[in-house]
Amino acid sequence: MSEATREGHRPGRLGVGIVGAGRVGAVLGSALRAAGHAVVGASAVSEESRDRIEVLLPGVPVLSVEEVVERAELVLLTVPDDVLPDLVAGMAELGHWQAGQIVLHTSGRFGADVLAPARRAGAIPLAIHPAMTFTGTSVDLSRLVGCPFAVSAPGPVLPIAQALVVEIGGEPVVLPEAVRPLYHAALAHGANHLVTLVTQATRVLQAAGVEEPGQMLTPLLTAALEGALRQGEAHLTGPVVRGDVGTVRDHVAALAALAAEDPAQADVPETYRALARVTTQRAVTAGRLREAPAQALLDLLASPAGPGGAALPVAAPAHPAPVADTPTDPVLVRTREELVGALRGQVGRRAVVMTMGALHEGHLDLVRAARERAEHVVVTIFVNPLQFAPGEDFEAYPRDLAGDLARLAEVGADVVFAPEPAEVYPQGDPVVQLDPGPMGAVLEGRTRPTHFAGVLTVVNKLLHLVRPDVALFGEKDAQQLALVRAMVRDLDMGVEVVGVPIRRDADGLALSSRNAYLSADERRSALALSAALRAGAAAGAGGPAEVLAAAAAVLDAAPGVRLDYLALVDPDTLAVLDDDAQGAGLLAVAAWVGNTRLIDNVAVTLGVPPQSVPGETDQP
Ligand SMILES: Nc1ncnc2c1ncn2[C@@H]1O[C@H](COP(=O)(O)OP(=O)(O)OP(=O)(O)O)[C@@H](O)[C@H]1O
Ligand SMILES: CC(C)(CO)[C@@H](O)C(=O)[O-]
Ligand code: BAL
After folding, report:
1. Which of 355, 364, 381, 451 to mutate to test the pocket of ligand 2 (most atoms within 8 A of CB)?
2. Looking at this predicted complex, what is its ipTM?
3. How many CB atoms within 10 Å of residue 75?
4. 419 and 533 inside one domain
5. Which of 91, 147, 194, 564 is in the most buried spot, having the most CB atoms within 10 Å?
6. pLDDT per residue over 77-103, tens digit each?
7. pLDDT value of position 614
8. Ligand 3 mean position to 398 CA, how many Å?
9. Per-residue pLDDT tens for 195-218?
10. Residue 358 assigned ligand-binding role
11. Domain range for residue 369?
12. Catalytic one among 96, 184, 251, 363?
């Protein structure tokens, strides 16, 4: 039995062993030594750790873990959190823990329960976490003085933990086992994320040409930190709490421009927007900001376009926000995290409609069909760079998030997920992409060879992120629909795929976001596509050759239309149909009208007279 238990709360002089002489282990070992304990050995794997032992713990032998545990009365487990449970259990299995031995770990997230295997062998389990960051040098020793330590241990031995902390100059703060993860999350959020924030601020100042950003930031950040620690939100200063919308708009614009220029700063605008949104909401709660300027700020901060961007509803915060959406507005979410929050608590079936925005009635048909099939409808709006080849219209593609949200409010979407490319592809282009196979190489795939790999990859990702029961796609993109069905079938993706008929204008033109590119003359020329398809379908009874000839004749005669392809294919496999094919076919067309590439298609019944039209009869 050790002196610690004999003498009650005073550990006395102990033989200390250190398992894992990383920064924390070496510094705490050195502090315990200074407090009069003897360090009997330390285990160290890396060269760095051995060097550290030489400097901070001169004369201490480097031993194996087993030897350290065997020789020590107080074992300091200063290993990474994830290693700790297995290490403790492994040593127990091998029978190394000793009765009366103090086993102390310094993980923030765990309490003393993780040491249960040692406790069962009669050891005294203590969890002692310094709320401090370490460099692994002697500088840290002075930081221990007055440093708070979270202490968790079974009641009877808690005083031993407290006494050890006091010996090395720290301030013990007793924490119940159950709150350790929350405690540790708070420290990581405050300290680690502060480093990210300050680093971003430093880099942005550098970009602004400030030579000594550290010097410029130190007095202000020190004052802000002291103020926040003393007064919380009551200490908030700056444009958000002043309701200075114009200034925040300028900030967002300047940061977006910087991010566009310098990919290393690409994460700054979103961080700024996210923190400014939260700051706005907290300022309202704290009674420091009125609702009108708060809503203006939230609208601005939710917009990807930033300055000049129209007002937008904002993501539902985790707790009810003082500035709320009207009940019919869909909740707009921009990040994966916000999406998870918006989906949390949904009960019943969920449908997804994936779009690239610039929504029209065709898209709204998809949402209406979704409403009929599910309790919750999620619409994604994402112009997916991966499905555009260089030279295609990715940059020019119409974007109108504010208009889209207004339209979606009318048909009743619940959640709109409109992420930035960096949110969908945080590592840039994905290393692993889906191969659409031969079905992706025909029709659209001949002109856009990389297109369907990009489509299927993003559809797959969005299905994983949204986790719907049903996904709806338009028949206007018939090849896309066929490929999504094939992917879901071949990869056992377990989502129902529903096709929705093509919505057309009264004159037959299929609705498409790209119709916005057309001049009035071009729009007239574009009618040739649907007219050709109608002519082809009407010739179905005559078989494939007649269908193609009838459609081609219309296209040939059309001014301003440059054909890419006209094809009659199997609707499921997309294989070109033989001349003697009967039954269902898909007649698909793609053509340029001016610089705009349009697609359209129609179902054709081959070898059977066309369906009767009311008022006519097919009977002889
Ligand atoms: N006219 C339409 N009728 C029915 N569904 C449509 C129509 N247009 C698009 N969709 C469907 O809406 C979904 C999203 O398509 P997308 O956002 O690409 O719109 P789009 O109008 O087809 O744009 P573009 O033709 O410029 O690519 C797809 O499933 C697509 O098939
Ligand atoms: C399915 C889709 C949203 C994937 O980007 C897109 O191809 C579209 O809009 O059809
Ligand atoms: N509607 C298909 C998407 C695209 O053309 O990229």
Report:
1. 355
2. 0.97
3. 27
4. no
5. 91
6. 999 999 999 999 999 999 999 999 999
7. 32
8. 12
9. 999 999 999 999 999 999 999 999
10. yes
11. 326-503
12. 363
